[in-house]
Amino acid sequence: MLRQGPGAGSSSPSPSTPKSAKPNPGKKPPPPPPADPITLRTKPRSALGQLNEKSWVADYVAPFDPAAPVKHVTTPHNDIKALNGTVIPVVGDRGVDLLVTWDKNRALLGPASTSIAPLEFRGRLAAAVLLPSWSAPGVAASRAPAAPMVVGLDEERRHLVLLQSDASRGIITTARVPDPTRGHFTLARRVDAPGAALIWYSTTSGDVFAAPVDFGRAEVSALVPLARLTTLTDGGLPACTAKPDAGTPVYDFILDLGLSLKVHARSGKTLLTEGASPSSVLVRASGARLCVTGVEVRGSGRPVDLTATFGKKGAAVTRFRASPEDPTKLAVEKLSCILKEPESR
What is the pLDDT of residue 31? Predict the structure, then answer.
């Protein structure tokens, strides 16, 4: 015999049916998962951090540092409405920081405390350097601020832009010159003396040139040849660790190159093979050679980053997401990295 269950055939609720719980208006929804950490390989127009009431929160990983952990920053903001922006490397005397720009704002992620400043410049910065404040054009030495200044490069418009704590303004514009090799411009920090230079390089011809910047006169000097791309050398080799001759200009800057990459585990297993991986190569350059001091590689189509440094304390790691729910939890695997000499062209 089939028996009808309690309440079947009737629209009235069963005495055993629990009443629906009333929503609690005072209960806050759970916080959203963290945003992806900001890195040198973050794509343009990506979401940079998150907004938490009246604060901007973000996680980031310092570039060219295999030992760098995921760092967290929280700073107040006034009226940020959009988080999509761009990440620009800033070459300084203690490494490379990250400048994030979005929604008419900017913030520098590095050893110093992070704060949000206005960004009036409407161009697109591609590279930047951190310089002593006394070299700012039009600023007397006695009135110069204690904090260093950031000078950025808008490669497309050929603008040099001064970023100070409370303002940003264009200071130098260079003339456009026909370039059949379709080379690239970047900005370099001078190592042997205070200053900066505009760098031009071509992956087609292999040429590299430097044009020193005179901030006092607001002009860029003539291009001077540096070593060619074919001289890229492991920064830990004796040729790179030797002290350069007095008066020889030496520059630190970042090249965007396509590197052939093979990553092997200590067991010999191949972890990653890429034909022409988009790579950021940190070099110390002179007229004799280009010494590679660091490499950042993003495996195409893979959520894996490779960071390597070369020198007396050379090291290398791969970083990949360890948790599908939390992108700030990264697994790190240590590697041994060898930079092979470039093939002759």
Answer: 67
